[in-house]
Amino acid sequence: MESTIKIEWRGKREKIIRAINSIKPDDPESFSVEFMEENELVTAIVTVTGKTLSSAKTTADDILACLSAASLTSDLI
């Protein structure tokens, strides 16, 4: 049974776009990203799909770890 997990992240456009772009090449067939813009903020909606809940969760965990690292790195630059 296929499982889907949605992750929403809202913040400054530049920071979110940079972080999302850093993970896109990783595994493009396992997730998609949509953006919703409102004034100076953007919401990234990451949709993760997997053949099982366990595989979707593992991918979501990996994405969250990568986004966290990319976000922290951009704060230092």
Provide keyphrases for this structure.
45% helix, Alpha-Beta Plaits, 2 helices, alpha+beta, globular, single chain
Q: Can you tell me about this structure?
A:
The chain has a single domain, classed as Alpha-Beta Plaits (2-Layer Sandwich), CATH 3.30.70. The model has no long low-confidence stretch (mean pLDDT 86). α1 (13-23) crosses α2 (53-76). By secondary structure, it is α+β, with helices and mostly antiparallel strands. Strands 1-3-2 form a three-stranded antiparallel sheet. It contains two helices and three strands, in the order βαββα. A hairpin with a 2-residue loop joins β2 and β3 (41-50).
Summarize the structure.
Helix content is 45%, strand content 36%.
- The percentage helix is 40-55%
CATH architecture annotation: 2-Layer Sandwich
Shape: globular
Average predicted confidence as pLDDT: 86
Q: Which structural class do you get from the secondary structure elements?
A: alpha+beta
Low-confidence stretches: none
Largest sheet: spatial strand order: 1-3-2
Q: Which oligomeric state applies? A: single chain
How many helices? The count is 2
What is the CATH class? Alpha Beta
DSSP, total strands: 3
Main sheet makeup: 3 strands, antiparallel
Total domain count:
1
Cα(first) to Cα(last) distance is: 42 Å
Radius of gyration: 13 Å
β-strand amount: 35-45%
- Secondary-structure element sequence? EHEEH
Q: Fill in the CATH topology.
A: Alpha-Beta Plaits
